[in-house]
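User: My instructor asked us to take a sequence, write out its structure as tokens, and then describe one feature of it. I'm not sure where to start. Here is the sequence I was given:
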Amino acid sequence: DVSAIVDSQTGGFAFRLKIEDFTFPNSLMQEHFNESYLESEKYPLSTFTGVIDNFSDLDLSVMQNLVVNGSLSMHGISKDAQMKATAQMINDELHISSTFDVALEDYDIDIPKIMMYKIAEVIQVVVDMKLQNRTDE
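Assistant: Let's start with the prediction itself. The structure tokens for your sequence are:
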């Protein structure tokens, strides 16, 4: 479950997702990763805030490749991050997809040495969003 927002004037972009919503090939792996390594009770959310490069120049009626520069926060630590994404407006919804890697050590996520062969030191995060136009009055 991802919550996201794009400022259509500035290209400002933010999303947050619940750590417990990260999915894995099997439920036991997901449970251990969330409880033991990501400490999802202590750090329940991961957030990204940034700006889409050249947003005002984009024609979103066709698929566009985006570069988003900002800050990714996870496990209580924020780091500068650059994400590549695709976006297109389809039926009044902005579809944004991104796949990016997160090095666990960058966020002080400790994996016991005995588990290193079972758990990747870099995890791949896949985010797919459909955003609807909303105006705040």
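For the description part of your assignment, you could build on this observation: The CA atoms of residues 94 and 131 lie 5 Å apart. Try explaining in your own words what that tells you about the chain.
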